[in-house]
C-alpha cells in the first residue's frame, strides 16, 4: 500500500470495528477526499458516518468536539494543514482543555487528520508545517507518520486514543518515499519494506519513536518526509548516522532520544517547519539538558527558513540534500 | 480624493443613553401580547419574516396569558417556574456578596434574565443537552443540581467537582445535561450542533440547546454553527440572549441597529423567533415549539430573547461608567419574576403572603447551602486540592514530561521550607 491506501485502510478498519467512528470534512464524502484518503468509505458505511461538510474549519472541529461529547469518536479532516488556523480556537481553547477544565466530566476523543508539509510546489498555503503551534498546547497529542505501515498503525492508535490527536500526514510522501532529490524521477512505495501493510487491525503505539537507521556516528532526529531525505543524505555521505523517526511529537519518546544521543555524542535535528520557535528548538533544548556531558559538538538544527513558504524558490527553501549534507559535515567536523 | 464628491463618513454606533442621561425607551416597539401568530412546527424558515422582527409575548398588561402562544400551563408548573427564578436570584445575591466578602475571586449574576434559562429548561426534557454560556445558571437551578455543589465550584474548595481547575461559575455537569462552560465565547455553538448531529445520526430522541449573548453572535463560530445546523437540519435550539449589553458595548456593536438577531436565522434557512425574554410564558412556549420542531426532524430554531442585563457584567464591572443608571428600572418589559408573580396573582393562584414566604424559603435554602459549602473551605484559605492534582486530566494518562514537572513542583515545595498546607 502507499500511504494514502494505508490511511484509507485504517479508517475502514476502525469504522468497521467501532460504530461510533465517523469521518467528516470538506470533500471527504461522495468524492472520497482531494487526496483520495476517504475513497469508498461513504459507499461502504453510509452518509451518516462519512459526510461532506461546509467549508468552515472552526465548524468542522467544533462539531467534532460536540460529537465527541455525545460519545462518538469523530475523525474530522482539515483539507490542508495550512487551513487549520480558523479552527485554532476550537483546538486550543476547547479540545485540548475539555478534559482538564471539566475534571474528566467531558472529553474530546477526536482525531484531526490533515495533510501537511512541502515539496510539492504548493506555495504559501499548501506547504506549511504548523506542528510547532500545536506541540506548544498542553492537552493535544501530535502524530506524524513517515511510512504506510506506521501511518495505518498510528492512525488506528490515534482514533482509539481518548485524547484529541492531531494527525499530520506528509503529503509529499503519500505516493512514494521522497529522498529530497526533486530533480530525479519520483519513487513509488512499491518494494519499500514499510509499504507492506496488513489489511486488518494493528496498532503502532503513540509516544514511541522508531529507529529508521541504526548507526554510531551521530543521531538525527526527524519526522515525516525528512526521515527519508535524511536517510538518502546519510547513505550518500557514507556516514554511520542513527536516524530516529520520532513519529509522535507529543508525547515524545524521550528515552529513545536520550539513549541514542548518549551513544553517538552528536545530534542533528531536521524539520521542514520554520526555524524560530519550531519543534526543533524544543528537541535541541531537551538534548542539551539531558545529554550535555555526552555531547561532542553543538546540536545542529536543519529547518525551513523563517519565511513564508515560497513557490518558485521551493528547492532553495526546502531542507534538502545540500543543506542537510552541509550540516552533517559541520556536526562531524567538530 | 475627488473634490466633486462629498466626503464619506464612518458610522460608529452610540447607545442612546450614557451615565446621567434621562432614559426614555419609547423607541422600543412592544407589540400587544396576542399579536404574534404561532406557525406550525413544520413551517419553512422563509415563513418567519414577521416573527423575526416582532416579539412573541403571552402575558398582557392585565397580567393575563393570552394569544396563540399561551402554553396553558397548570398553576403548579407556573409556581415551579416562579420558584426556580426566585432561587436563581437569591443564589446570585448571595454569591455576589460572597465575592465582595473575599470568599471567591469572581461572580456573574443573571438578574433580569432568569426566565431565559429557567423557563427554557422547563420546556426541554431532562436528558436534552444544554450548551450554556456563563449566564444560564438557571439551568442548573431548574434541574435541581445541588446548590452546595455550585458553591463548592465557586469557592474552588475541597468539594469542588472541578477540583479547583476552573474559574468560578464555569460549571460542568454531564449528568445534569449541562456542558462544561468555556471562557471562550460562542465555541459551544458548533459543539451543540455536533452533539445534536450525533444524536440524530444515532437515531436518538434527545436534542441540544445552546445559549450565547447578542454580543457573541459576532463571533465566527456563530456563523459556522448556523451553517452546520441548517445544512444537516440538526435538532438544536439556538438561544441568543439579547440583554442589550456586551460588557460596556451596547447591542449596536453586534449589529442591532440594522436588524434583529432573530432575523439572522432566516438567511441561514433556520426558523427564527423573537421573544419577550422577560415573559417566562413566552420563553417557555417558544422553547417548547422549537423543541417539538427539533424532535420531529424539522430542523433547528434560533430564538432571540429580548431582555435587559439589569446589573453589571460581572463582579469586575461597574456599569455606571458607561450606561445610565435609570435603564434597568425604565426597561419597558419589566422584571420576569414580578411579571410571572403578577400573573399567578391575577389568576388567583398566588398572593403576596405566599410570595414573601417563598422568598424567605429560598433565601434560607441558599443560606444553608452556603454554610454547608463553606465547611469545605473558601478560596484563598489554604490549599483545598492535593498539590500534585494540578497535573491530573491534561491527558487521560500522564506522560513523562508532566510526571517530571509534577515531581519538580513537589520538590520545590519540600525545598521551600514553607510547605502548602495539605488537606
UniProtKB/TrEMBL annotation, chain A:
<dbReference type="Pfam" id="PF02779">
    <property type="entry name" value="Transket_pyr"/>
</dbReference>
<dbReference type="InterPro" id="IPR029061">
    <property type="entry name" value="THDP-binding"/>
</dbReference>
<feature type="domain" description="Transketolase-like pyrimidine-binding">
    <location>
        <begin position="1"/>
        <end position="176"/>
    </location>
</feature>
<dbReference type="GO" id="GO:0007584">
    <property type="term" value="P:response to nutrient"/>
</dbReference>
<dbReference type="InterPro" id="IPR005475">
    <property type="entry name" value="Transketolase-like_Pyr-bd"/>
</dbReference>
<keyword id="KW-0560">Oxidoreductase</keyword>
<dbReference type="InterPro" id="IPR033248">
    <property type="entry name" value="Transketolase_C"/>
</dbReference>
<dbReference type="GO" id="GO:0003863">
    <property type="term" value="F:branched-chain 2-oxo acid dehydrogenase activity"/>
</dbReference>
<protein>
    <recommendedName>
        <fullName>3-methyl-2-oxobutanoate dehydrogenase (2-methylpropanoyl-transferring)</fullName>
        <ecNumber>1.2.4.4</ecNumber>
    </recommendedName>
</protein>
<dbReference type="Pfam" id="PF02780">
    <property type="entry name" value="Transketolase_C"/>
</dbReference>
<dbReference type="InterPro" id="IPR009014">
    <property type="entry name" value="Transketo_C/PFOR_II"/>
</dbReference>
<dbReference type="GO" id="GO:0009083">
    <property type="term" value="P:branched-chain amino acid catabolic process"/>
</dbReference>
